[in-house]
Structures are given as C-alpha cells and as structure tokens.
Amino acid sequence: MKVLVVAAHPDDEILGCGGVMARHVGDGDEVHVMIMAEGLTSRSGFDTATGKEELAALARVAKAANGRLGVTEVSLHGFPDNRMDSVDRLDVTKVIEEKIASFAPALVYTHHAGDMNIDHRVLHDAVNTACRSTPGHPVRTLLYFEVPSSTEWQIPGSAPVFAPTWFVDISATLDAKLAALHEYQSEMRDWPHPRSYKAVEHLARWRGATIGADAAESFILGRLVR
Questions:
Q1: Domain 2-224, CATH number (from 3.40.30.10, 3.40.50.10320, 3.90.1300.10, 3.40.50.300)
Q2: How far apart are CA 156 and CA 159, in angstroms?
Q3: pLDDT digit string, tens, across residues 134-153
Q4: What pLDDT score was predicted for residue 8?
Q5: Which of 60, 72, 167, 174 has a CA positioned 20 to 30 A from the CA of residue 23?
Q6: CA dist 32 → 47, 54, 202, 224 (Å)
Q7: Cα(76)–Cα(89) distance, rounded to whole angstroms?
Q8: From CA 71, how far away is CA 154, in angstroms rounded?
Q9: Please, what is the Cα angle at 106 between 217 and 16, to 5 degrees?
Q10: How remote is the C-alpha of 95 from its chain's centroid?
Q11: What is the pTM of this model?
Q12: Checking DSSP bridges between strand 107-111 and strand 30-37, what pairing results, if any?
C-alpha cells in the first residue's frame, strides 16, 4: 500500500504518526512524507542573515528523522511558518493534489481540524480538498492525527475537540518513534512540556491503555471507502 503523510512543520509527522509510519514500513508499505511549512521564520530571534543555513540544517534533520523510520521520500515545500493562512488556499491544495496525482496513495494522514496552530488547520482543509471523492480518486482512507503542544492546547468550544475513533497499536514501534524524535532535538522541550520525550511516551502509553495495548497512536477517521 502507498501511504502519504502531510504535515505542517518538521517534527509534526513523527509526533503525529511516527509509530504508525514505522508499522507501515514494517508491513512493506511505501511511505512518503510532505512537510509543507519551513518551521523556523516565525520564531523570535530568527536571524535572516544566518537563516538560510538554519533552514537547511532543519531540512537535513527532517530527512534523518524520517530515514530512521524507513520513509521512502520526504519533501519540504517551504511555505511560511505559522503564516500559511496568508497563502492562497488553492496554492497549498495544488501542491498536495500534484503529489496525490503522481504517487496515488491509498491512505493519507494529516492534521486535526481543531488544532491551536493555524498551519495545522490550513493543511487540514487543503488535504480535505485535495482528497475530495472525485471519480477514480486513489485515496480510500483519510485519517487525522493529534500533535502534542497544539491539539491539546486548543480551548474547548473554540474548535472541534480531538475525540479519537481510530487506534493503532504501536507497542513494537514506539522506540522507533522516540528514536526518530531524537533527531529533532532542537524542536523538543523539557518535561513537563507536552512536546517532551517523556510526554510523548506518556501519551502513547495512555492511548495504548485505552485499547488494552502497551502503546498506541490515535486518529479521527475522516473517510473510509471500501
């Protein structure tokens, strides 16, 4: 099976579904990852004079992290970080549509609609548009993941709540997910921040306990076509 992960920023893909990606690879599936925003320029202290090298370094880290999971291809598209709402939605959607047309994935993972981060929400809508059920469209399953330090930070009532309906046992691949995240050391934070290694493991253990497994990742099902 061909699997496509569409993530906003470098590390979102591993945080959201790194364990599942490793499972897909182990099952012989081909996994491609699109990282849509560059992930740095919105941060305070970003130096435009040295920024080009910082962005190149983060791109190398993204490729190394996904390489640990056996991902076949990682593409980085350079949309403005935390400013994707300033870009015409059609421009974002077309990039995703072109990838779907060339790769023809049966399964797509992307962000939840109610995340705090604006780039996540823009991508959720763009992926939905790119995956609309036109005749002969290859995508049969569409799943939305959660991202620590965005999904759970949204205020109840301000956006749809992440209430997972789809769970995948990652007991055998949690270590691979955490190892991939260690490539993203610059993006991780100290406990008790939700984007710490300890918090990521706790979330996986809790999602696992929800289904009687050692560890799991959870999703909301957008569409399943049989």
A1: 3.40.50.10320
A2: 7
A3: 999 999 999 999 999 999 99
A4: 97
A5: 60
A6: 31, 24, 27, 20
A7: 17
A8: 30
A9: 25
A10: 16
A11: 0.96
A12: unpaired
The structure tokens 């789809």 sit at: 166
User: Radius of gyration (Cα) for the chain, nearest Å?
Assistant: 16
Query: Pairing mode, if any, of strands 141-145 and 166-169?
Result: unpaired
Whether the predicted pLDDT of 209 surpasses 90:
yes
Where along the chain do its domains lie? 2-224
Mean pLDDT, range 60-78, rounded to an integer:
97
Residue 104 backbone dihedrals phi, psi, to 5 degrees: 55, 60
Answer whether residue 33 shows pLDDT above 90. yes
**Residue 170 near residue 177 (C-beta atoms within 8 A):** yes
In this predicted structure, the answer to whether residue 50 has a pLDDT above a threshold of 80 is no
∠ CA 36-42-47, rounded to 5° = 115
Other beta carbons less than 10 A from residue 12's beta carbon: 31
Q: Which residues pair with 33 in a beta bridge?
A: 5, 74
Determine the length of the chain: 226
Please tell me the predicted confidence (pLDDT) of residue 49: 63
